[in-house]
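Q: What would this chain look like folded?
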Amino acid sequence: MEKTPVIDYLSKDYASFRRMMLDHLAQRVPTWQEPSEADLGNVLVEILAYAADYLSYYQDAVATEAYLETARLRTSIKRHVRPLDYTLQEGCNARAWVQIQVNQPTTLPKETPVLTDVSQFTTHTIIAPTSSYYADVLKQAIAFETLHDMLLFPAQTVSSSMSKRGRKTV
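A: My prediction, written as structure tokens:
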């Protein structure tokens, strides 16, 4: 009676699939040898191991996306909440409109930090990062950054969109 080869159901990668197929061939065809990498038998085993590795990865990805708790892709989460009549919005960074007043034409560089109301902490409108209370103000205020370079003029009231950089920490 012919001995049935042992199948390792935990094989999940190319190397383990290849080794399992070569072991299976050694049992089924004892006279077959692996003479070279270019041997047709070796080529077929490696192609099948590659396909099995790809399918194993695909199965893992499908299983991961099948549940809301483990889904990693936004499209999968959208599909999970759609039957509940919930529409998942695309979302964007927090933004704020800021009014800036200047006495002379000035360029405000991109990524300039702008803080929420800090009047309770200081009477200064500009807080230098080297000042002694800069770290204390950052703990209480929410920081935004400008998205673009802006040329500011005293005769205009300038508003600009800001992107939220930090979160309020208590």
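Residues 40-65 form the longest helix (26 residues).
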